[in-house]
Structures are given as C-alpha cells and as structure tokens.
Amino acid sequence: MSTETDTAKGTDPVTAVRRRRAGVTDKEGRRVPLWQLVLRYALLLVVLALTVGPFLWQLSTSLKGPHEDIFSSPPKFLPGQPTLDNYARVADTIPVWDYALNSLKVAAANVVTNCVGASLAGYALARMRFRGRRAATLAFILAMLVPVEGIIIAQFTTMRDLGLNNTLIAVLLPGSIGAMNVLLMRNAFLNLPYEVEEAAYVDGANAWQRYLRIALPAVKGTLAVVAIFAFMGAWDDFLWPLIVLSDPDRFTLTIGLNYLHGTFANDERLVAAGTVIAVAPLIVLFACLQRYFFRGVGEGAVKG
Amino acid sequence: MNSPTAAPADPSGPLAAAPAARSTRSGPHRAGRRIRRQLPSSPWLFAAPGLLVVGVFSLYPFVSTVVNSFTDRRTLVPGHYVGLANFRELWHDDMFWTGLRNSTLYVLGVVPALVVLPLLLALLVQRHIPGIAFFRAAFYTPVVASIVVVGLIWVWMLDDRGLINSVLEAVGVGKVGFLSDQWLLLCSAMAVTVWKGLGYYMIIYLAALANVPRELHEAAAVDGAGAVRRFFTVTVPALRSTMVLVAALSSVSAFKVFSEVYLMAGPSGGPAGEDTTLVMLVQRVGTGLTGRVGYASAISVVVFVVTVALMLLVLRADRREDA
Question: What are phi and psi of A170, to 5 degrees?
Fold first, then answer.
C-alpha cells in the first residue's frame, strides 16, 4: 500500500521547491488558504482532545495522591501532588508484574510462531507445487472466515481434551499461526520476482535454502507487519484468555485488569495505574514502529 | 512480470516442478551434485504447522460447534443427540432474544457511524500540512490499546462521579446515568466501539483517498462544484467499494461485540441482564464446570448464520448499486 505519507516525504524535487516558496501547501504544491488552515488545525485539535484526552485523564488519575479529590467538580486535570504510589499499590493488590510477564511471554511466543509458521506455509503455497495445494489454500481461507467468537466454546472443550486449559500454552495456541498471516505471507512471496529463485535453483539450492536465504529476506516488510500484529493481538486479547484461564496465578494482564476492576472497583487510582501499565508498552511500540502499523491495516484490511 | 508465476493454475518452470518430483520420487537423481544429506524439503513439511494449527483450532472447532448444537453436551458430560431441541429452547428463551436484539441494535448503531466518521477524519488528515503525521498517529492510538484498557478508561470517564459527569455538573446539566440506565449503557458501549475503531478505518479510507484521481476533482471544480458538492459527486462515488468494505467489516465485528459491553455493563450484562449481547450469552452459558456446551453452540450457530447473512447483505447492496 502506498499512502501519501510515502510519496510526500519530499521525494519529488519540484514539490519540495514549490513548498519552500509558497509557505504552507499541500502535496500537489497548491497553497492552502489561511482560514482553511486555521479551521483544519482547530478541528484536528478537537479530535486530538477526543482521542488522546481519555488516555491522559487516566494517566493523570493514576498519578493523583490518596488525599487528593479525584471526583472534584469542576475536574482537576493535573495531579496536585503527583505520586507513583498507586503503581506500587497495584503491585500489592494483584501480582501485576507477573501478569505483565505472562502477557509478554504469550505475545513474544505468538510473534515467533506466527513469523515462522506463517512464512513457511505461505512459502509452500506460493512457491512450491504439490498435490493438494489448492485444498491447503482453501483451508486457510476458510479458517480466516470462521469468526473466533463463534467457536470459542469448542476451542475451550478442545483445550480440555488436550489437557491444556488454564495454561499459557492454551492462551497461545489458537492464534499461534493465523490463517490471515499465512495468506499475507503467501501474497508477499507471490509478488517477488521469480527469476532470482530460479537462478538459485539452477545453482543447486534446495527449498530450505531458497526460502531462508532468498525469499525470506525479500519479504522483511510483511514479516514485520505480521510480527507487530501478532504481538498486539496477543497482548490485547481478552475473550479467549478470559475463558481459558481460571487460575489467578496464570492470568495475563488484560484478565488481571478485569479482575482488578471487578474486585477493587471503588479505587479508581489503582485501576488507572493498572491500565497505564497495560497500555504504555504498546504505545511505545507503536510510536517506534508506526509505519508498519499503518501498512498492516492496508495489507490486512480483512482482519476486522 | 510476476503475474504468470502468480497464477496457481500454471506453475511452469523448473522451480515449481522440482519439489513435487523430489517428494514423490526418492532416488539418487541429482546426487552427483549434492552428496551431503539434506533436510527433507517436502512442501507438506512447510505447510504442516500452519495446517495443523488452523485445522485443530479453527476448522475442527467450527465443525464441532455445529455438531454440538444438536446435542445436550455439557462441560463434563458427553452429550447425546437431541435434534433441534436446543434451537427450540432458544426460541422460548427471553435472554436469547434480548441478546439478539442488543447485537442487532449494536450493528445498526455502530455501522453508520463507522462508515461516515472515519471518512470525514480521513479527509481532515489527508492534506500534508505540517504536523499531520503526528495527528494521524495520535488518532490511531485507541486502535493500539487493548479493549480492556479502553473499556476501563471509559468506565471511569462515564462513571457517576467521573470526568464527564463532573463537567456536566459544572455546567449545570446535572448527572447522567451513562452506566446505570439500560439504554444509555448500550449507547455508551457503542460510542466506545466507534471511538476505538475510528483510527483503524481512517487509515483504510486514507489509502483509498490517495487513489482517487485528482483530475476528477479538478474537472468538477472547473465546472463550478464547491467542496461539499465535490465530496458527494466525486469522493463518495470513487470510495464506494471502500465504504462497502468498511460496512462489511464493521457490521460483522459489531454483531460479535463482547468486550465493551462485558466491561461496561459487567459480566451479568447490566440491569437485569438487559444489556447482554449474543456472544456474552455464549460465554456465560457455555463456560465453567456446568457449562451447557450444546446450548451455547446453538447460539454460536445463530452467530455464524447472522454473520454470513450480514456479509451477503452488504455485498449484495454493493452489487445492486453497480447495476
């Protein structure tokens, strides 16, 4: 996908020159009238307040001290006596760092299994010829269309039959190789020029070598998208771990937060601190790897 | 240039043909060049992990959900075939109708907002004015956050003593029971779903907007069409297929809503369970040691059927406009 972000980064010298001369212009070098510009920024700031404001309010609440009125009307946006005390108290109330570690384990494992499994299967579907390839492709397409929410009870009974329920393995397994990711990798491999691999084949490289040394390095971008969405999906998941985990020792962060909310609902400062712990790593990850997130939406628009 | 190789029907060339030959024939062919032992490179070995996971955890559960819906299976008790008894019970189950009503209302409430608002947002961030990358990223933040985090943030925002009510009180409107009234609660949850989805669909629209030919806008401008008129005569028709895609994606995910309502209304679904959605009902009925797997599967089958119907409906609406 090529959003305008890609094209606009001053790659076109004419645009760059025009932009310098005319002050504020858009991508085509047309000048934006001042009143329109002011209106645009005003609207942008309103939407900014609506989208980011609630996060900042939560952060502010989590930093307010025990003697500060968090219910005041009119509200106080900045903490009077900022303190990290609430974060320590969350850890006293629930083993929040253990939960974070559980989430991290599942998310990291999900990245590895998805990158390896999806790229292997995608490579087979795109570059190898075998009987049943169409059937295999169809299996992945069908699996992609099955709504997770509809099969969650059957997944739960399957896990029971496998003796895995109430383990982190069970949290990981159903999404460990996403059908969507397999198809994404397949498309990425299909879009590679064929000739390089052909040449490698003539030189005697076997399928593993072609996959590992030639094809895989050429699809790093898609692989990054798969990795990021695998991490985010596992870190943010709620319904499935809620169903499969019953032992509070094995909770992931989202389930722990739900538990915290249910049990200590009257202490908003604690819940706020917990949510900040859960969301901060992802916001940092997002800030660092923005363009892959946006690419993922374009490439994986079917993901829902 | 790559398209011939992309066609699965005609994988010509030595590369595509070789692995098949290698996996079906074992023999010392080509051994003259490669003597050292190789890993077996059967295509099935490449595809096996993926097929296994997808088969065991998506396709098999799908089939077993359908099968279980005709049994009285419970979590610890293997069930017997009971025919359509579960579906007959559904018909007389008030909670099922409540769930179906709420999930349907959710689609009706959320989808129009998610088709229109992200498009307006995309138009707002489309122009490359200074700082726009920051705004785009900021608008995407709710997508990145976990639904649990988002749910709890809004539970606190909409609390009786939370930010919104204290602002409403300060300006003299008085408190609004966002989380205590059955209908307001459902509307609040819809608003949260829309809030979290805005950035996601904004990016989809942004990509589509980049492909609208500028000439169309210029031609319309020359003909004297103003910005609003150009939006309806140029932008909307050019983006129609994207809007259909957004409608399809958002209606399917809206019908399957669980987390927002679960977090905001509580596990029992608000006052007297009146805010229960279908997937919440599946979770409540089918889990735990006494879970009624058969009955929950029957509800899941309804979820499948409605989901597919929604997809077909949206796609059909698209085709009709085509004609």
Answer: -65, -35
